[in-house]
Design brief:
CATH architecture of the largest domain: Orthogonal Bundle
Keywords: Coiled coil, Membrane, Transmembrane, Transmembrane helix
Helix content: 40-55%
Order of helices and strands: HHHHEEEEEHHEEEEEEEEEHH
Protein name: Multidrug resistance efflux pump
Organism: Rhizobium sullae
Structural class: alpha+beta
Strand content: 15-25%
Number of strands: 14
Amino acid sequence: MFELLLCSMLTVFPDYLYRRYAQGKRIGREITLYSVWYELRWGISACLILTISLITMIFYFHPSTKNVTAVFRTVTILPEAAGRVVEVYVGVNEKVAAGAPLFRLDDSLQKAALETARRKIAEVEAETTVAQTELAAADGQIQEAEGALQVAVDEYEMKSQLLRNDAVARREVVRLENTVESRKGAVSAVLANKQTLEAKINVLLPAQKASAEAAQAQAQVELDKTLVRAGVAGTVQQFTLRPGDVLNMMLRPAGILVPAEAGRGTLIAGFGQIEAQVIKPGMIAEATCIGKPFTIIPLVVTNVQDVIAAGQLRPTDQLIDVQQMARPGTLTVFLQPLFPGELDDIPPGSSCIANAYTSNHEALADEGIGTMRWLFLHVVDAVGLVHAMILRMQAMLLPVQTLVLSGH
């Protein structure tokens, strides 16, 4: 409507003034509906053409959208394991710091597993002490076996000399020879027993202790999981948890944590797909939001998503018909404030209206630019001023429209 009024002021209105005051024609006599159309047909046609051209230039070179939101992501409050709630430390809409406890689950099983792991460690340490005592006893057994072997060897050597003089029976010498071999076997046995004890003390028991310590650490981790803490600083929402509730990771979350910085500092806008050739990072933009009425926020385009979300395809067990994706998607554009702190007062999730403005300053500064192109680019930039005026009018009317639509 504003574009039509502006074009009428440049075409139809001057034509009417000329015929009314220059030619002296009167309304209702010479100026009738038919004569208006017949005499002002060129002005009306030029008005329509100019209006269409102006609208095209405005919304192509200076795109506008009402699909602007301060998008934010929430964090689902979930325990890492299912369990029954025994204590709750926070309430609804309460601000929490990162790492603050939120609630605690029943930890009787985890404490029992931790105590079992601790007892296993104590058992291994006690077994190590007993093995060291057995190792000391093995040293005594080795000395005893070596002494018995030496006695048997001495007696065997003495009886062997007496056998040459037939002073002793051969059967006695054979018995002593068998005794020496038996003593050697006893010495080997006690030496092997000592090696077994040393291997047990140096290898087996440390491995068992390390395994028990790992089990203790795992049990401690499982015990720590029963105390659910806030991952980030923020505000707890939809948190109606009470002692006795049973939580499940897949079926029943405890609530939602809205991060303190969520949705701050960035607006996400959805422009028409036709603007994909125009909107580029670095473009200047403006926005007005319901959450901050009567205010124009200067912005800059920081990023343009290079895909259209409407074309997203996920494999399923059914073939996708393209007709099901007939609804056109929008071009996702990320906007950040031109000056720090401009979006601090905007509540996350606010709905806004945004305009982006094409800049032709570099092209106009080129000395080799043609006259027609120079004139066209000047007109494009001038049209941007018209669009900026429209946005300011919308900023004034947006709160009123919101109140009317909400029934106030």
